[in-house]
Design goal:
The chain is 16% helix and 43% strand. The strands form 2 sheets. Strands 6-5-4-3-8-9 form a 6-stranded antiparallel β-sheet, with helices on one face. The protein has a 3-stranded antiparallel β-sheet with strand order 1-2-7. It has helices spanning 2-8, 45-52, 120-128, 162-167; strands at 19-28, 33-41, 57-67, 75-89, 94-100, 113-117, 129-136, 147-155, 177-184. The longest helix is centred in the middle third of the chain and has 9 residues, at 120-128. A hairpin with a 7-residue loop joins strand 3 (57-67) and strand 4 (75-89). It contains 4 helices and 9 strands. The model is unreliable at 1-14 (pLDDT under 50).
């Protein structure tokens, strides 16, 4: 009886899906600053069911390089984003993933990289791993200043079809977001 009462009054955050940036690595080369990350999450059943019925899911990975300033807010040096669209193709029974540097519109995919996958787990694995993403040119990073990188990953519900946008308001199943900040190590003196 008491257990049933606690189950009924459990807090809203108890249903929030667990998502985390499990690994994040920054690499400075002569070509620029590269970010590699691993995001760990399980797609909530409600979201997976919607995707299996043909509703495309939109994910966004964002990175900002910030320069430390003692007298004001940190200065944004670079801000980049990577947009991913995952859709189930019922005729071929395959999952299609498009990756682009700009938001993916329904009218056309523009310049994007497309991949097909046999099942949802394979497609999510590709979304969860970001490898050597060039986020800044080498010239944009001042070797004399201290920098940090803010990385954010989220499910973008604003790109869902309009009826779904209205239906997901207040639903914690659709709140997939994680972030991480990491200090950029200074380049060794030559």
């Amino acid at each position: 009886m008491l257990a049933a009462l606690f189950w009924c009054i459990r807090p809203a955050w108890a249903d929030t899906p667990e998502i985390e940036v499990a690994q994040m690595r920054l690499e400075r080369t002569e070509e620029g600053l590269f970010l590699s990350a691993s995001v760990r999450f399980d797609l909530p059943q409600l979201v997976a069911d919607a995707a299996a019925k043909g509703i495309p899911l939109y994910f966004v990975a964002e990175a900002e390089v910030l320069r430390d300033r003692w007298y004001w807010y940190d200065q944004r040096v670079v801000s980049v984003a990577r947009y991913m669209r995952l859709a189930y193709q019922p005729l071929t029974r395959r999952w299609r993933l498009q990756v682009a540097p700009t938001p993916i519109a329904n009218s056309g995919l523009g310049v994007s990289l497309g991949q097909s996958f046999e099942d949802l787990d394979e497609a999510l694995g590709a979304i969860q791993r970001i490898s050597r993403w060039r986020i800044a040119d080498a010239a944009a990073i001042d070797n004399e200043a201290r920098h940090s990188v803010d990385f954010r990953f989220r499910l973008d519900v604003s790109q869902l079809p309009r009826p779904f946008q209205l239906g997901v308001t207040g639903r914690t199943d659709w709140n997939l977001a994680a972030s991480r900040n990491q200090r950029l190590q200074p380049e060794p003196a030559k």
